[in-house]
Design goal:
Order of helices and strands: HEEEEHEHH
Largest sheet: 5 strands, antiparallel
Shape: globular
Number of strands: 5
Structural class: alpha+beta
Helix content: 25-40%
Number of helices: 4
Strand order of the largest sheet: 1-2-3-4-5
Radius of gyration: 15 Å
Length: about 160
């Protein structure tokens, strides 16, 4: 991960931390360099130089709601840098998950309804890392050097 706080167990959420919303996915993704938006309003996808890094999935038989038995209709897919990053997010205490369809693939899933379990800042980190994983190395390096690590509500990384 570009910033790595989630990999080290996250950081403490400050009192002022706002929980993420669906609209934040678009706002954050579109704030990154050279992002193209495709898909529909309901199921957008975000790519950097033709490589998708976040997309809203349609219902698929590999992701079934355990309460209803119906295919999940609200799944967002995020690229990750490597399988260690994937494992850190899936095994962490957050709402990220995977399915057998994604075994060996560098991506994690999150339900829209579970965005409220993630702060906007955490979501920004995941999306920025997804973008950096798919962007050309020079573009990613330049952006990350210019922007520096995000502010973390006054708490140092790994203090949570």
């Amino acid at each position: 991960m570009a910033y790595g706080a989630l990999r080290r167990g996250g950081y403490r959420r400050g009192m002022a931390a706002r929980m993420a919303r669906v609209r934040d996915v678009t706002d954050i993704a579109c704030s990154l360099p050279e992002v193209d938006v495709a898909g529909t309003d309901e199921r957008p996808s975000f790519a950097v130089r033709g490589k998708t890094f976040v997309f809203f999935r349609g219902p698929r038989k590999d992701a079934v709601d355990p309460d209803t038995g119906e295919p999940m209709e609200d799944v967002i897919c995020f690229s990750v840098g490597d399988l260690a990053d994937k494992e850190a997010l899936v095994e962490g205490d957050g709402p990220f998950f995977t399915t057998p369809h994604f075994n060996g693939y560098r991506a994690v899933l999150l339900r829209e309804r579970d965005l409220r379990q993630v702060t906007r800042q955490e979501l920004a980190e995941v999306i920025t890392d997804a973008w950096a994983a798919r962007a050309p190395k020079r573009l990613a390096r330049q952006f990350l050097e210019d922007s520096g690590p995000p502010a973390r509500s006054g708490h140092p990384p790994g203090s949570g």
